Amino acid sequence: MWVWCCRLVRRCSSSPCCSSLFLSFSFIMADTNEAENIALVQKHYDLLNARDFDGAFGCMSEDIVTHSVMEIRGSEMLKTMTTKASQTFEGFREDVQDIFACGDKVCVRGVRSGKMTSNFGQVQASGKKIATSWIVVNRIENGKIVERWLNHDDLGFLQAVGMMGGGAHGGHGGHGGHGGHGGHGEHGGHGHSHGGGHGHSHGNQGPPPEKPSHPVSPSEITEEWLNTALGKGGHLKSAKVKSFKTNGDPISATELVARLNIEYEGVAGSPPNLVARFPTTNQMARQLFRQAQTHVRAVRFYEHLAPRGRGITVPKAFFTLSEPSGDFVILHEDIEPSFTHLNPVQGASLADAQSFINKLALFHSQWWKSTTDGTKGMEWLKSAPASELTYLQLFETSWRFMSTNCSLSPALKGIGDALGKKLPDLYSYHRNFEPFTVCNNNLGPSTLLRGPSGEWAIDTWNEVSLGKGVRDVAYFLCNSLPSDIRKANESDLIRIYHQTLLNEGVSGYKFQKCMSDYKIFVVLAFAQLVCNGAGLFVLEHQGKISPSQQPKLQEFKALFARLESALLDLDCATALNDFKLK
Asked: Quick one: average pLDDT of 503-520?
């Protein structure tokens, strides 16, 4: 159990020297507003615990924004998540333990509790009482809660329901008042703590830990450290780093990434453009990623696999570091000046697909395990990536929202309804049944880069694992190819992949099996897209999409249309119905 303490510095009362009537009136009004704001937030929890969900979420604006790793918009979505929580956990409550106000913000520390009496996906109800501590910061405007930032013990929930290893105790992923996805499968995931009120973990603390000798975020990078890091690999020769500039916003939901433009003194062996990668600063996400060995995957991939890989260009790493705490640092070349990303909405051309599929098969064949033992010594790639754990939590709620609020064909609804029960088995089949190879697991168009001479590169490998190579094929073809091009050329493209494997010495994997696996992984690609895009589709349906969200919405709509077409063209409903682990 995490113990959270919230420290909030409240505004002081007026100074004796501030005697003007205006200032006195301002302080009185501020105190009054803060009291009203506290009462509003407390009312929300009182109504929630009384099972008056309409009243509880009536305290929020309809377009409320809840910030977590996956941003949630709208009070209706939060209400549905909470309803599901109350059905899964008997005696479900959100008990406020501390509540503070400062200006237009109210910070709440509480505990969510209940007894798990219903199944969570494929996880059987344990009958155990579980609880989760959480902190949430609420912003109030015109008598409504309009924005929220949360942090909670998502890892404890995953351990409690048996989805991750760990102690028997833990929370069910409290939503901190209905926050981010994850937790009990509806909403308690990887919460950020932003704005006023920052969570701190206290307990039996020894001496403060020594400050790491390496930077833990882009803001801590210095010329001195760059000289040390690049010098260890012999990349500086007689040169040294004179200065550098950081380009772009370094913040990401899953990691911190900074692009560095470096000026050297002398002749250096490293390029002027580098990318620096660090773990996220969100502590709940860090715990999940550490459990999933995300830092180990990323660093070992760049250290051991990337230099030997064929077919796919991987940026050269100049420095890597990984620690048991989950800290990591990766410095690699920035290839974007000469490579260009695919346009997700426009999609790939047939020539692009033919070229990439051939290169992907070359890459997969090198690590193939069928009659050979190409994956020996890669045990660190066998566990579930963090994204798999997250999607298993999110799908049922995400799909329920889409099927309820979006106009979907009966055939697609049937696939989505059946998918929730089989999703754990699909992931198990991917990772636990031979043949294995090294899979990226996230080959959407936005992750692919095309080089000036026909080369192909993939810009992120944080979710790399052993698994079925054709999953990468399905993800690429059905997300990246316009539907008419895919439908007319799908079988030929899969034959290119399969024949290239054979040409590279792979045996024991028949084309018919490759094709049946492909259909199953088209379904899995659809599940991932639903989890990633449900919130945007619902907002559009409600007419609440903002201009800044339009580009991402258009990307998701393009990918959704392609995947829907593939699911129906390939009769994936039958493939899913017939699928059994064996």
From this structure: 96
